[in-house]
Every structure is written in structure tokens, then in C-alpha cells.
Amino acid sequence: MLTAGNHKLSRHILNFSLPPGVTCRRHVLCAEACYAVACYSRYPNVRTRWDENLRLSRREEFSAMMIDEIVEKRGVVVRIHVGGDFYSERYVRKWRRIAGALPSVQFYGYHIKI
Predict the structure, then answer these.
(1) pTM for the full model?
(2) Would you list the DSSP string of 13-81?
(3) Which of 49, 108, 109, 110 is most buried by its number of CB atoms within 10 A?
(4) What residue segments make up the domains of the chain, in order of their start?
(5) What digits encode the pLDDT tens for the residues 9-34?
(6) Alpha-carbon distance 46 to 83, whole Å?
(7) Could you give the CA distance from residue 49 to residue 43 in angstroms, rounded to a whole number?
(8) Residue 67 near residue 96, CB atoms below 8 Å
(9) Burial class (CB in 10 A: 0-12, 13-18, 19+), 95
(10) Which has the closest alpha carbon to 35: 94, 92, 81, 71?
(11) C-alpha neighbours within 13 Å on the C-beta side of residue 81
């Protein structure tokens, strides 16, 4: 589910993304300029991973799975949503559970609109 960061931020930052458009409430306004839309449509491996992340995020055990993966990868910083957005209150609660269980990990995102 998680991937390593890029050269602009840090390889030590773990990233989690979802498909853009499907999960973004205002995707019509920014779709043409969206970095995530370009990546999602241009790279099949990105599309496959982000689609799978969406499927997994809907599972009841998503929080436990994410906690385990962050611990396994020794995450210190997690960027939520390079692509995609918080698509429901239930999904937000899952991330709150994750963050609450890992108080030493820093979580951040750029487009939190809930």
C-alpha cells in the first residue's frame, strides 16, 4: 500500500495514494492540471496500485493493515494522498485510528477537505 517518497521530498517519507477523480470532491475544477491525474493515466503500475489501495481502504481491517505496514517499514513520516482525497467520514475515522495508534509517526496531507 505504501511507497517510498521521491527525490523532491525524501525517500524516507512513506506515501499512500488513491485514484484521483473518483475520490476527489472537486476534481472537475483541477483535473487538467492535476499531477495525480497525469500519473494515474500515464503509468499503468501507478493505476494498478492506487486502484488496489482504494479497494483495500474500504475494508474493515484497513486501519490494522496500515498500522502493520507502517511499523514493518519503520515509518516516521507518512504522506496521505499524493493522489486522491478523503472520500468519506468513515475513511477519515480509519486514518484517525491509524494516527492514534502510532503517535511517534508524523502524518500529513495537502488536500484535506472534510
Answers:
(1) 0.88
(2) EEEE---TTTS-TTHHHHGGG-HHHHHHHH-HHHHHHHHHHHHHHTSTTHHHHHHHHHHHTT-SEEEE-
(3) 49
(4) 3-108
(5) 787 899 999 998 888 866 555 656 67
(6) 10
(7) 10
(8) no
(9) buried
(10) 81
(11) 22
